[in-house]
Predict the structure.
Amino acid sequence: MIVAMPRKSSPRKRNGLLDDRAVAQRVLDHIRDRTTDMGEATWREPTENYSSAKRFAAELELLRRSRTVFCPSAALPEKGSYVAREAAGVPILAVRGDDGKVRAFRNACRHRGMQVAQGSGCAKSFVCGYHGWTYRLDGSLRHIPHEEGFPGLDKAKHGLVPVRAEERHGLVFVTQEGKGARDETLERLPGLIEGEQTLFACSENVVPANWKILLEGFIEGYHIRATHKDTFFPYGFDNLNVVETFGRHSRIVYPFRRIEKLAALPPEERRVDGLLTYVYQLFPNVLITVLSRHTNVVILEPLTPSSTCQISYGLTNRGLGDEASRKEVERDAQFVTQTGAAEDRAVVAAIQRGLATGANSHFTFGRFEGAIVHFHRTLRAAL
Ligand code: FES
Ligand SMILES: [Fe+2]
């Protein structure tokens, strides 16, 4: 186990995560005692694992056989809504069918392999841009122009090749290879994203760093003071987090200073909304950050050992979908992207450049970086 054990009286949810009230208590205790959650041990990760082509190929294979988040359900709001992108190096297309069900396919035409959709949008069918073969939303092949040129071709056997897709917790999960083992801890997670949360932003940025370096920056608060001195730190604490692991995943709590006012309230009256940020890391490559007014779903798609496509979806939090709230939501989101997140991007790119120095044979993760230790231990075991 990575984290300090919760007090015996702590109420816990079925999935093993503390409930909001217990989180608030743990934070207040840390503020009073000037402490933070500590992992049991440090971890030395060979730097070779951030650059080796062999390791990178093994990680992509792991991603392809894992049940991974492809996009939030809100990115596929209606019949015909689709998202096409590369996942673990493979073009994949997810689409909501006429029956409302989300399906996913290998995004390659069955004639000569061209992608039948790009980006995102809403379609009635997918028409390949090369010769016009046309597929229904359920992937079946509807039309071949000048079909007489393909005598004997069985259209029923030339639909788009499906991959497993499921909707859970307001997210679309895809499993490219195999059945994707059932993940009980994830099953028990309460709705992370709810139906009424609407999508207000979506972006894709290529970051010049290994995907694991990006991931690590999201799941420890040890860097807040030094990296985010004038942006996040004035609102937060120096190295004060609640760190929990659940199954292969983890959750890190970043409290705001204004949470201290809860100390004056009886525990049953304490509400944490707007007083802390929850960061869920869904193994392997997805982060869900629940901020005051909005939630980001961040998918880290490894492109090469030294580059990553960061796909971010911004969703309004519950009850904030109206026009007036949305302005505030967007202002918040901009603040995060242009200040603290920009600082994080600069750091990860610098760490990537640092790899070339050969100065470190290992990176050492300390006891404050317990979620990272859990991630590397889990990744090593999964590979
Ligand atoms: S490759 Fe798609 S129609 Fe020819
Ligand atoms: Fe950061």
Summary: The pocket of fe (ii) ion (ligand 2) is lined by residues 217, 223, 227-228, 340, 344 (CB under 6 Å). The longest helix spans residues 323-338. Residues 45 and 52 are 13 Å apart (CA to CA).
